[in-house]
Amino acid sequence: MSELTLIALRLGLVLALWLFVVAVVLVLRNDLFGTTVVTRSSKDPRRDQRPASSLPADPTARTGADGTARTDPEVTQAAMVVTAGPLRGTSLTLGSTPILIGRAPECTLVLDDDYASNRHARVFQREGEWMVEDLGSTNGTLVSGRRIEGAVPFRPGAQVRIGRTEIELRRGPR
What tens digit of pLDDT does each residue of 53-109 get? Predict the structure, then answer.
């Protein structure tokens, strides 16, 4: 081997070692200082958290032409309620925007859990049915005790488990 090739290999090895050291330092920093908390304004439509008991009794009451309130009985309200884990009692009213669950600060439901991935799962509506999708998480997502891959139906009463957190879909009349 020529001397130039040996110098190039040595420099490549030193560069690779430094990249490894930087990666280790970044991982340690994230583990030591945790997830960055992002405060969101109350006007953020993706972040409607409140206890399940405070869900409005009749948010879709509409006013008719005569000024009286009327209710559409076929419309139902859906909410995700955290039933176990550090965020127990947290409720998210589901709308047309998908709900992203994970440790990353940009998630709608931020979990401070070592067993949750940064972007762990997503809850969304498809053809009038709620779906939950595992986003390739390391430790997986369980729906009613079964590990899922991809998107599966998320029916009322079903329990979704992500790490130490359990989430239940609840529907009620609007």
Answer: 444 444 444 444 545 444 433 335 788 888 888 888 888 888 888 888 888 888 888
Whole-number Å distance between alpha carbons of 167 and 173: 20
Q: Which of 152, 2, 172, 17 is nearest to 80 (CA)?
A: 172
Q: pTM, whole model, 2 decimals?
A: 0.55
Q: Tell me the torsion sign for CA atoms 112, 42, 59, 94.
A: negative
CB atoms within 10 A of CB 104: 17
> Is 158 in contact with 143 (CB distance < 8 Å)?
yes
Which residue type, as a one-letter code, is found at position 166? E
- Whole-number Å distance between alpha carbons of 174 and 145: 29
Residue 1 three-state SS: coil
